[in-house]
């Protein structure tokens, strides 16, 4: 049982690392898009910008779920 828990933990940690790297990339893209629109004096309500923000939010939610899962595993 302990081995299975360790395997789950290792898999979750790998997935968490992957998601955190993905989040950093997507967040950088969002920051660039926002900066460009601000520099042009345009509102931050562009459809592409809102879609990118949603993508970041979804990845952030996945990260939170993985962190909660890891907390549960460590509590076992």
Describe the overall structure.
- The chain is mainly α and 76 residues long.
- The protein has one domain.
- It is built from two helices and no strands.
- It has helices at residues 2-39, 47-75.
- It is rod-shaped.
Short description:
By secondary structure, this protein is mostly helical. The protein has one domain (2-75). It contains two helices and no strands.
Topology:
Blueprint: H1 2-39, H2 47-75
Helix pairs in contact: 1-2
Radius of gyration: 17 Å
Low-confidence stretches: none
Number of strands: 0
Q: Which word captures the global form?
A: rod-shaped
Multimeric state: single chain
Structural class designation = mainly alpha
Amino-to-carboxy terminus distance: 10 Å
Q: Helix content range of the residues, please?
A: over 70%
Elements, N to C (H/E): HH
The count of helical stretches stands at: 2
The overall number of domains is 1
- Average pLDDT level: 93
Major sheet description: none
Strand proportion, as a percent range, falls in: under 5%
Keywords: Coiled coil
Coiled coil: 2-36
Main attributes?
single chain, 76 residues, mainly alpha, 2 helices, coiled coil
């Amino acid at each position: 049982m302990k081995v299975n828990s360790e395997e789950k933990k290792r898999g979750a940690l790998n997935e968490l690392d992957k998601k955190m790297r993905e989040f950093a990339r997507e967040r950088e893209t969002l920051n660039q898009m926002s900066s460009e629109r601000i520099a042009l004096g345009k509102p931050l309500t562009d459809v592409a910008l809102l879609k990118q923000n949603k993508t970041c939010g979804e990845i952030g939610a996945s990260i939170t779920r993985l962190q909660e899962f890891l907390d549960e595993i460590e509590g076992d």
